[in-house]
UniProtKB/TrEMBL annotation:
<protein>
    <recommendedName>
        <fullName>DUF998 domain-containing protein</fullName>
    </recommendedName>
</protein>
<feature type="transmembrane region" description="Helical">
    <location>
        <begin position="16"/>
        <end position="37"/>
    </location>
</feature>
<keyword id="KW-1133">Transmembrane helix</keyword>
<feature type="transmembrane region" description="Helical">
    <location>
        <begin position="169"/>
        <end position="190"/>
    </location>
</feature>
<keyword id="KW-0472">Membrane</keyword>
<feature type="transmembrane region" description="Helical">
    <location>
        <begin position="108"/>
        <end position="128"/>
    </location>
</feature>
<dbReference type="InterPro" id="IPR009339">
    <property type="entry name" value="DUF998"/>
</dbReference>
<feature type="transmembrane region" description="Helical">
    <location>
        <begin position="77"/>
        <end position="96"/>
    </location>
</feature>
<feature type="transmembrane region" description="Helical">
    <location>
        <begin position="205"/>
        <end position="222"/>
    </location>
</feature>
<keyword id="KW-0812">Transmembrane</keyword>
<feature type="transmembrane region" description="Helical">
    <location>
        <begin position="134"/>
        <end position="157"/>
    </location>
</feature>
<dbReference type="Pfam" id="PF06197">
    <property type="entry name" value="DUF998"/>
</dbReference>
Length: 236
């Protein structure tokens, strides 16, 4: 199946990749809930970063003056989901380059989103207590690149003649909004410690837009594939 703004594959693989995008995005977000509940030291979604759920050891962590006790028995699941989902989203981002828009902006967005997926996988491969510096590079760099990818994809979608709507909202504009929101969150991650920002909220503001975009994009493709199937069945 080929055409403006569609993936150039048959309907069945299109639905498969769309479903995998939805599942990967949702799994990465939702795994935090059971991991937080299983945390032996307690977990605050406001005060603690996501990386605390993936730490392999137990003990005090953080600044000397304000250490936080961390112990996450579910770290293999958190890190495993990051590795698998990040790698999967990177592959899907490459496959979706024509769906985003067959243009330079579309290819740029696809490449950056794929790179962001691989950096997400990197955060799972290198937990914060194994190599704090490399984990920070993967985490902060991933958030920046992911949201730059959303901005590029948003420009491509907005400039492409075939508009896509998710409810009453134009998807290109929504993509730009998610990218801008996430990039602002990434910039706040670099704020001085003296600002005393709620690091858990700020980190999720930087990383969730990337995942939410894949969930929404996958859902749109599943919806459109089902509509096309009904139209073919009815002989339209």
């Amino acid at each position: 199946m080929a055409g403006s703004g569609t993936i150039r594959v048959s309907p069945k693989p299109e639905r498969v990749w769309a479903l995998l995008a939805v599942l990967a995005g949702m799994a990465t977000i939702l795994i935090e809930i059971p991991a937080a509940l299983m945390s032996e030291s307690g977990y605050s979604f406001t005060r603690q970063p996501i990386s605390h759920l993936g730490m392999t050891g137990c003990g005090d962590w953080g600044d000397v003056g304000t250490p936080i006790e961390v112990c996450s028995p579910a770290h293999p699941f958190v890190n495993g989901v990051s590795i698998i989902a990040g790698s999967m989203l990177a592959i899907i981002a490459f496959i979706w380059h024509d769906w985003i828009a067959p243009s330079r902006w579309g290819r740029c967005g696809s490449f950056l989103l794929a790179a962001g997926g691989m950096l997400l996988a990197g955060t799972g491969m290198v937990p914060a207590d194994i190599d704090p510096t490399l984990h920070t590079v993967f985490g902060f760099g991933g958030s920046a690149i992911q949201n730059l990818g959303l901005l590029a994809a948003g420009i491509a979608l907005s400039r492409w003649p075939e508009k896509r709507w998710i409810g009453p909202v134009e998807f290109g504009g929504l993509t730009l909004g998610l990218g801008a929101f996430g990039l602002a969150g990434a910039l706040f991650l670099a704020a001085p410690d003296s600002w005393n920002l709620p690091v858990g909220i700020v980190e999720r503001a930087a990383s969730y837009p990337f995942l939410i975009w894949f969930i929404l994009a996958g859902w749109m493709q599943l919806r459109d594939a089902s509509r096309r199937k009904r139209e073919l069945a009815s002989g339209r």
